[in-house]
Amino acid sequence: MNELTKRYGSAVAVDDLTFHVKPGQVTGFLGPNGAGKSTTMRVILGLDRPTSGQALVNGRRYAEMRRPMREVGALLDAGTVHGGRTALDHLRWLARSNRIGKDRVVSLLELVGLAGVARKRIRTFSLGMKQRLGIAAALLGDPDVLLFDEPVNGLDPDGVRWIRELMRGLAAEGRTVLLSSHLMSEMERTADHLVIIGRGRLIADTSVRELVGRFQRGVLVRSPRAGELAEALTTRGATVVTEPDGRLTVTGLDAVEIGDLAAGRAIPVHEVTPHTASLEDTYLRLTAETTAYASSPERTAR
Ligand SMILES: Nc1ncnc2c1ncn2[C@@H]1O[C@H](COP(=O)(O)OP(=O)(O)OP(=O)(O)O)[C@@H](O)[C@H]1O
């Protein structure tokens, strides 16, 4: 994504957005409703034209690919498939028109857990089943790059866990996985990296670990020799505050470093608790401003 901007009339859906998605990891694409995630994915897939800037996959625009399904697989809106067809017919038709072997259809129906309903019409499927079918379609061409827009919509807890494991498995195979959601709780356990947007703009492009670290509020440490430990920690560059109950709040060193330092000096430690704002809190704090703005049209009008 390079300086991508997409306007619909006077409304800006995506605003000068630049980020790169790496292979071998799951990248969570997060933002409140209306942040511009679907629009970005539609532009990547050539379904919408950018107003300016560009979205490239493997250095090329989607329209320039000779066999796009073999390069990029996508699940956008699972509800748009032809309801009169069976799951098997739908995938066979997609395979035929993209010169993909029939065997692959059967193995994918098994992979997504739809083998037993392959000959049922799609209109009888639940939303979760349609999501599974959409995922099978995305994987049909065995592409290295995969885009999933809110894939857990409509799935039960088993389905959510299945998606999580599937995404992690695809990334472990070295594929590039971009997964959108408006819920941080989902991403926390699935993604390695996060791209967070709000009102079409980039808010954060960071690893999950870095984001946790950024909002760490220190490590709480309890020791019967707190004074001695505080002195040792301060010497190592940490900032130490002694709490009224005698515990120490340490910043500047993480729990592992504190534990190792104490062990090295044979100072007993009875508690080491990192105090981290949850990722959910962090995400809400990061996006609060954009959400408030977006939900107050009278303010944007001025
Ligand atoms: N075809 C369109 N015409 C006009 N405005 C549009 C169109 N598509 C999207 N928008 C607007 O662009 C903005 C971004 O929408 P988009 O669907 O990309 O957000 P999103 O992050 O995917 O949100 P959600 O989580 O709700 O799906 C919204 O304000 C939306 O109303």
Q: Residue share in helices? A: 25-40%
Write down the overall mean pLDDT.
Answer: 88
Which architecture of the largest domain per CATH? 3-Layer(aba) Sandwich
Strand count, sense and barrel status of the largest sheet are:
6 strands, mixed
Question: What's the name of the CATH homologous superfamily of the largest domain?
Answer: P-loop containing nucleotide triphosphate hydrolases
Which consecutive residue ranges, at least 5 long each, have pLDDT under 50? 294-302
Which strand order does the major sheet show? 5-6-7-3-8-9
General shape? elongated
Q: Can you tell me the number of structural domains? A: 2
Count of alpha and pi helical runs: 12
Q: Count all strands and give the number.
A: 13
CATH fold title of the largest domain: Rossmann fold
Alpha-carbon distance between the termini? 31 Å
Pattern of helices and strands: EEEHEHEHHHEHEHEEHEHEEHEHH
Structural class, please?
alpha/beta
InterPro entries: AAA+_ATPase, ABC_transporter-like_ATP-bd, ABC_transporter-like_CS, P-loop_NTPase
Protein name: ABC transporter ATP-binding protein
Keywords: ATP-binding, Nucleotide-binding, Transport
GO molecular function: ATP binding; ATP hydrolysis activity
Can you offer a commentary on this structure?
This is ABC transporter ATP-binding protein. It comes from Sphaerimonospora thailandensis. Keywords: ATP-binding, Nucleotide-binding, Transport. The protein is an alpha/beta fold and 302 residues long. It has 2 domains: 2-206, P-loop containing nucleotide triphosphate hydrolases (Rossmann fold, 3-Layer(aba) Sandwich), CATH 3.40.50.300; 216-276, Alpha-Beta Plaits. The chain is 38% helix and 24% strand. It has helices spanning 37-44, 68-71, 87-97, 102-111, 127-139, 157-172, 184-188, 208-214, 226-235, 255-264, 279-294, 297-301, and strands at 2-8, 11-17, 25-30, 52-54, 72-75, 145-149, 176-181, 193-198, 201-207, 216-222, 239-242, 248-251, 271-276. The strands form 3 sheets. The protein has a 6-stranded mixed β-sheet, with helices on both faces. The protein has a 4-stranded antiparallel β-sheet with strand order 11-12-10-13. A 3-stranded antiparallel β-sheet has the order 2-1-4, with helices on one face. Strand 11 (239-242) and strand 12 form a beta hairpin. Mean pLDDT is 88; it is low at 294-302. Adenosine-5'-triphosphate is lined by residues 8, 11, 13, 31, 33-39, 182.
